[in-house]
Amino acid sequence: MSVPKPGQSMQIHSYKHNGRLHRVWDETTVLKATNNVMIGANDKALVTESDGRTWITREPAICYFHSKYWFNIIGMLRTDGVYFYCNISSPFVYDQGALKYIDYDLDVKVFPDMTYIILDEDEYEQHQNEMNYPHVLDQILKNNVNHLLRWIRQKKGPFAPEFIDQWYERYLTYLS
Question: What does the record give as the active site (predicted)?
Fold first, then answer.
């Protein structure tokens, strides 16, 4: 898989299990890109929903994607601390200038004090039935929820105390 160079801009495309495009982030700056890990940043990014509606992100965000884990992590820098929004998703691929993944509805919101809540379990069950997720996929996703929760509790990866600040500082160097 080819990867972009740090400083380049890329789009992020989120799909659903049935192959339909779900959401597009128009512009994210690549901070690190390998075959296994992609870290990007954006601020006030234009987001387009599948129905054509658009909105703008409110704060700077550091985006962490992995090619082996079934989740991605968005660290949002707000005035009262870093909040994380974690999507249970397929591992990423980079294709035709865009990072792409399948969103599997389950989300984990992590607060600055590292407490968390699991979101959208009802939406997951609905889509699991509608799109006939295979049993093995259900097991993979649930195992990865547990893996993600261990990372949160252990402050590992993007949850490490300095991770978001360090990557945000790198992002600022591309803006000047």
Answer: 23
